[in-house]
What does this fold into?
Amino acid sequence: MTPDDLDTAITCVTTALTPMTSRNWSEAPGTGEWTAWHTAEHIGDCLLSYAAQVVAQPTTHYVRFLAKADEDATPADLLEFATAGAGILSATLHTTSPTTRAYHPSGLSDPEGFTAMASVEILIHGTDIARGLGTSITPPSDLCTRILLRLFPHVDVRGIDPWTALLWATNRIDLPGKPRQTAWHWQGTPLT
It folds into this structure.
């Protein structure tokens, strides 16, 4: 996983959601109990938080801040917030040593891990927003394959379309013959 993958993920989501910015995201469902508006805000916060982790490199906690969108932010503003977060994280990852390690609840992660986790945050929460607005997102299969290999090496998804497999691995869909992923997790720690 490279910062280019992160750039691809955010472009995929913003391209799909930009035509939906005239809709009321405060009334559309997002992730869980969140609206689409709050889900989009979470994406921006998550990306900025990951950038802070990579820069400060704490080993036992998240850097203590919360990035929030203005209360009157429009859907277009929220996409801009997410895009800014992705750009800051991508720029940070481009200049970070591969030996860098920083805290994540899934374990000390490396730049590749933060890239993959951020890509999942973008794509999965982006698809939550898209579903709430009655549209869909279809990221490139090769990006989904790299994410699965990096974060879900413990999940057998052979023979399944990579985007479908990623949606299943993150408990967004059910797959016939596969158990529901109610307590899913990813491997944030380096693979080697």
Summary: Helices lie at 3-17, 36-56, 75-94, 111-132, 141-151, 162-169. DSSP finds six helices and no strands in the chain. The chain has a mean pLDDT of 95.
